TrEMBL record:
Keyword tRNA processing on entry: no
BP term (GO), one: methylation
A Pfam family hit: Methyltransf_14
Keywords: Methyltransferase, Transferase
GO molecular function: methyltransferase activity
Domain C-methyltransferase, residue spans: 244-401
Record-given protein name: Methyltransferase domain-containing protein
């Protein structure tokens, strides 16, 4: 099944179907089982502009609401990263008169709280009321709304132009991307920049990280597709910087065409992606084949461990856990529960697969024989924290890029 590109209107050719899936961060209570929203989780690539995207869109009001459960500040590494982002903006862009930054999807204020502490004008545009309130509690100015052309015009009318428009793990979530770019164009001051950090298609394909595909991630950016998208709306991609967040992302810096020089990083990425055939039909088909192999290998391992009487517990309940447990058919017969440090998720169930989410203390009461690491992008931080599990003889199961036990 093919679709129409949300960026350029070209034909999007499907390359992977991960089956019927719920909204990844819905996390129902046990008594709510049975009423979950389901959709077909499939992705394709545009033959014209190369943008990889979901074929079916989940309404944004289903994904972002007053019960939204993701917290950007939940990881020490994330807090450190976004504080560095803020300090870089304060040093390089938010100087002199008219310094003003707008963040699209500010979540719980993990980045803007540093800007607020510096006394610099700012505004977070956050559609989920509960996390918007948490940001306000940190001293962050927040508008509870979805970002689009109309919102941007209202922000400019009230606050003036922005020197920086920023988004982290949010721009790829917004299906109405044309309205986003028109809004940025209306809001951005002359010489200003639009900076966004998003999962990188190259990393997703290289790592076989198919669990990065879920309802919130509408787009899967490459430097090639972002450069083409920017040009379509009168902008120019001027920098493309790799960052380690979420297993490997790119920080894209976009400016109005001709306002800033295009850095060598963009040219290097474009050449490398051409050479790799990054979003070619062949590369995407290979990715799909690898995903199915990981599913088969992981299920075989979990069934073997169950037959041997071994106990496996899930570690971390990010949105990625929804994709892999539903695609693989992992239920409580194989993984009885998942431990996660997010209070709002505890006592709830992983969407679709309905694995109970328990607090971190349950992990060591007693330690399991194996831990299935759903939060693999935080592996270093987690393993340093869980030395007791290793000392007890416990072993970690990972599935990115292949199924391994260590």
């Amino acid at each position: 099944m093919n679709g129409e590109c949300r960026v350029c209107g070209g034909v999007v050719e499907e390359f992977i179907d991960l089956g019927r899936q719920p909204s990844a961060n819905a996390f129902p209570l046990p008594e709510q089982v049975g009423g979950e929203f389901l959709f077909r989780l499939a992705a394709g690539a545009c033959g014209r502009c190369s943008m990889v995207q979901l074929l079916e869109e989940v309404p944004q009001t289903v994904r972002y609401h007053e019960g939204y459960r993701y917290r950007a500040s939940g990881s020490k590494g994330h807090r450190r990263h976004f504080e560095e982002d803020a300090r870089r903006f304060l040093r390089d862009e938010l100087t002199g008169p008219g310094a003003f930054i707008v963040e699209i999807g500010c979540n719980d204020g993990v980045m803007l709280s540093t800007v607020a502490d510096a006394g610099v004008a700012h505004l977070g545009v956050e559609p989920s009321a509960n996390v918007a309130d948490e940001a306000r509690a940190k001293g962050v100015s927040v508008l509870n709304a979805f970002f689009d052309e109309e919102t941007a015009a209202a922000v400019r009318a009230e606050h003036g132009p922005a020197k920086v428009v920023f988004g982290a793990n949010t721009i790829c979530h917004i299906a109405h991307i044309r309205s986003v770019f028109r809004g940025v164009g209306a809001l951005l001051a002359p010489g200003g920049v639009f900076v966004f950090e998003e999962p990188y298609l190259g990393t997703v394909l290289e790592q076989g990280a198919f669990d990065q595909i879920y309802d919130e991630h509408v787009f899967y950016f490459s430097v090639t597709s972002v450069a083409a998208m920017a040009e379509r709306f009168g902008f120019e991609l001027v920098e493309a910087e790799p960052i380690p967040l979420h297993g490997g992302e790119i920080r894209y810096t976009v400016a109005r065409a001709g306002e800033r020089p295009v850095g060598g990083s963009v040219r290097r990425f474009l050449a490398e992606e051409r050479e790799r055939g990054l979003s070619s039909p062949e590369a995407l088909r290979r990715f799909g084949d690898n995903v199915r192999q990981v599913r088969d290998d992981l299920l075989a391992l979990l069934r073997e461990l169950r037959a041997d009487g071994k106990r496996v517990v899930g570690y971390g309940a990010p949105g990625k856990a929804t994709t892999i447990t539903n695609f693989c058919g992992i239920g409580t017969d194989l993984v009885p529960f998942v431990c996660d440090s997010t209070p709002d998720k505890q006592g709830r169930l992983v969407p679709g697969s309905h694995l109970p989410v328990r607090p971190p203390e349950a992990f060591s009461d007693p330690y399991p024989d194996y831990a299935l690491l759903f939060a693999w992008n935080h592996a270093e931080e987690i393993m340093a924290k869980e030395q007791g599990f290793r000392h007890s003889g416990g072993r970690w199961i990972r599935y990115v890029p292949t199924v391994t036990v260590d």
